[in-house]
Model the fold of this input.
Amino acid sequence: MRTIASACCVPALLFGISTSLSVAAEPAGRPVAQLALESIFSPRHAPAAKTMGLLQRSFLDLVETSPLRLQVALVVDGTDSMSESLGGIEQAILRMAEDLRRYKGANVSFQFVVYRDTGAPSGEVEFPLNTRDFAFSNDDALLRAAVAKLRAETGEPYFPELIDLGIHEALTRLPWSDDPQTERWLMVFADAPPYDAGFDEKETGARRRFDTERLIAIASRKGIKVHCILCPSRAEDRAVYEQVLDKTQQFLNRMATDTGGLMLDLSYPDIQRAVAQAATAEPVAYRRIGQITAEEIELLKQQLATQQTPLTLDRRMRFAVLPHLPLEKMAFDPDRTEVQLSAELRHKLRLLPGVEVKSPATVERQLAVLRGRDLADTALLQALAVVLDVDYVVWGSLDREPSSVLVRSAIYDRLGGRQLVQESIRTGADLPVTKVGGQLASNLIRGAVGGGMDQRLALAMRPATDNTPLQNALLTPVSNVPAARDELLAGFEALEQALACPAGDPESLPWLDRCEASLNRVLATNGDPSNPFAQILLASCQFNQAQVLLNAGRDEEARAKSQACRQAVNLAYRFRNNAQYDYLRTEIEADYNLLFKKDYEAAIRLYEQLAQGDPKTPLSSSLRATWMLGGIYSGDWGVPAQWVDESKARQQLVKILAVWPDSREADYIRRYLRWDEAKGTNQFTYLPQEQNAVVQRMDDAER
Done:
C-alpha cells in the first residue's frame, strides 16, 4: 500500500487539508490499536467516553446493555500499511476476549475476516478461524490459532482497499444468529477507505464492490451493529494515509452511525494519549463479586439506623477545615504553618465519634470555583458548606508576633454561614507549638458545647468533654519535637492531597514524593525516629508510590518503594506502643500481620475490630478497615485462596456504599463495578485485585 489511486478516487482538494494537522504518530511502545483493544471493554482501563471522542456511549455501555449472548466478527485490514497495528491486534485479541467473558461468560463467540486488495498473494478475503461453515466459536485454542495467522501482505495496487468487500463477506457469509437474545457486532479495523463509488480499473482489477448504502441496509436488516476502529498506518505510509484520512473517517463513521455502532478514531493525538494513559495500568487478576443492589444497601442503612452507632448516617457530622489564611489569599501548600494547622485540626476532629472531615484537595477544588463569584466571606463560607455537603466549616487566622503566634479559629454553620464558636490561643513558654493544634481543637469543642448556639453541634461534641481518654487524645501532640511536628503535618497534608487522585495516577507522584521527603525528615536521627504515626504514614506513601511506578512501567523503582513500605510497616510495629491512640496501634498491628507476618487470621480479626463502628475508632479508620477486609476477602493483598470469600467481600463493599457513600472508596466501587444508578445495581461483577502486584514486590526481598 505505497501508492494512491487515481484522481477520481482522491480529489485534488484532499491535498494540503488541515485534517492532517490532527494526526500524530503512534505513542511509543505498544501499538495504539493494541492499547485500545486492551482497554475499551475493561472498566479498570477504559478511558472516559468524552476523552475518546465518544459523545454519549462507550463500548462498555454497549456490552452492558446487550442481551445474554454476543457474536463478534473481527474484520481486519491485512495489508502492509497495517503491519504495526496487526501485531498489536494479535497481542490484544485474547485480552479483549477475557474482558468480554467477564460480562458474558461462555456466551461470547468470535469470527475473523481478513481483507486486502486484488494484488495480495493470499487473495482478497480470508477466514483464518478454522470452523465448519464459518461458524462463530468461543474455543480459545481456535481463537489463538486464528490470531497467529494474522499477517500483513501487500495492499497493491493502491492505498484504498477492499474494506467494502470484507464487510460484505462478514455480513453475508457468516452464520449470524437471529435469536433475539443474541447481540451481533461487526468490529472493523482499518486505516484506509474503500475505492470511490464507480471506481473500476480494468488493468489492475481495483474497483469498488459494494456501495455504503447497501452494506448499511444488510447490517440493519440483520440487526448487526458495525463498530469501526480507525488505526494509524505505519510510518512510511503516513503521507498517503493523511491525504485520504477524511475519506476513511467518513466511510467508517457512516457505517457505525447508521447501524447503531461506535467509531473510535485513533488518528487523533488526544484520543491516542487517552488510550495510552488508560492502558498503562499494571495488568491484574479479577475476583467475581456478584451483583449488588440498591435494595440491600438501603436495608443495611435501616439496620444501622436502629443500632445508633457512629456508623449511623443520621448521627453523622461533616466538617471542612480551611487553612487559617485570608480567603482571598488562600493556599494549600503543605510547608505553610497555616496549612499545617488545618491538617492538625482535621486530624483531631476525626477522632470524634461520627465525625467526617473533607479532604483538603476537595476543599481546594470547590473553593477555587466559588472564589470566582466575588462573594463576601460569610456568603462564601455558606456556599462552600453547601457545595461540599458539610454541616460546618472551620476557619480562622494566624498572626505572628515577636515572641509568639496568635491563632484565632471559629466554627461556621451551613445555614447562613453564622459564626457559632470562636476561640483564640497564643503560643509561648506555657504552650509549645507542638500542643497548639490539640489545645485549639479542645477549646473549640468546649466552646461549642457550652455556647448553646447549635444544639446539634453541642450534642456531637459532648463526648469529647465527658470522656477523659478522648480529651487526652485530642491534647496529645502528633510529635513532641517541634521541627518533627511541622514536617509530620506537612507530610500528612501532602499524602491527603495525593490520595485525592485515583490509585496509580501519575499526577499523585509529586505529592507522594513531597510526603516521603517530609516524613523521612521526621524519622531522621535528630527528629522523631520512633514515631509510629509517621512510620505508618510513610508506609502508605511508599505503597502508593509503588503503584504509580508500576503503572508507568518503572518496575525496579516500584520494587524499591514496595520493600521500603514493608520496612516502614515493620518499624511502625516495633514502635507501636508509642502510638498516641489505641485505634492507631490496632491499625498498625493489623497492617503488620497482613503485610509482614502473613498472619491473615490475626489481620482479619484486627480489621474487623476497627470496622465495627466503636465510638473509640474514628470513622476514617473504620472505613479503611472495611476497605481492607473487602480486599482480603476478594483475594487481594497477596492473600491465599483459603481466605477468599465472595459473599464476605460483597458485604464489605455494600457496607462502604451504605455507610460512606461519598468516600473515595465508594467512588472506586461504583466506577469499577460500573454502578448504574437508574437500575440500582452494578453492570460489572468482578473486582480488580489492585494491590497484589505491590505486595508481590514487597515480598521479593524475602525470597
The radius of gyration is 30 Å. The chain has 27 helices and 15 strands. The longest helix spans residues 83-104.
